[in-house]
Amino acid sequence: MLAIAAALNFTTRRKVLVFSETKAIVQALPAESLAANLVEPVQGSAGCRLATKEFLHYLLLSADNQKCLLIIDEVMTSRLDPNGCSAATGIKADLMSLGKYVGDGMTFGAFGGRRDIMEVFDPEISGLQSTS
């Protein structure tokens, strides 16, 4: 997933925290090793489990404290609000992934985020490689 690659590149760290026992995992890892917290606001393949507002806020605060990125996977939920499902909880991710509806139903996805992170993909900045 390019969003994870962007987080690893931007932070120069090697570990990514995924939806799970977040508090225990964050405490077990050295703070400087975590590149990103990645979460789906609604886990589709896990039985449509909704992440609580408190859980999402914990991940945001954790990302701020750990100086890592918060990536919200809105593939299933981004069509619910122009700013994604997580916007309803007041969460603004560093990176957000979007679903195939952005390609009018074709197998297509996209991600975007903070300007300083996304600049790595700008083909007009010298020294960067852009591919299609």
Q: How would you characterize this protein structure?
A:
One of its GO terms (molecular function) is transaminase activity. This is Ornithine aminotransferase. Pfam families: Aminotran_3 (PF00202). Its cofactor is pyridoxal 5'-phosphate. With 132 residues, this protein is an alpha/beta fold. It has a single domain, classed as Aspartate Aminotransferase, domain 2. The chain has 4 helices and 7 strands. The protein has helices at residues 2-11, 22-28, 53-66, 115-118; strands spanning 15-18, 34-39, 42-43, 49-50, 69-74, 95-98, 110-113. A 5-stranded mixed sheet has the order 1-2-5-6-7, with helices on both faces. Strand 3 and strand 4 (49-50) form a beta hairpin. The radius of gyration is 15 Å and the shape is globular.
- The CATH architecture assignment turns out to be 3-Layer(aba) Sandwich
Q: What letter string, H or E per element, gives the SSE order? A: HEHEEEHEEEH
Write down the domain tally: 1
Tell the overall outline: globular
What's the pLDDT, averaged over the residues? 79
Q: What is the radius of gyration?
A: 15 Å
Oligomer: single chain
> What's the β-strand tally?
7
What is the secondary structure topology, with strand pairs?
Elements: H1 2-11, E1 15-18, H2 22-28, E2 34-39, E3 42-43, E4 49-50, H3 53-66, E5 69-74, E6 95-98, E7 110-113, H4 115-118
Parallel strand pairs: 1-2, 2-5, 5-6
Antiparallel strand pairs: 3-4, 6-7
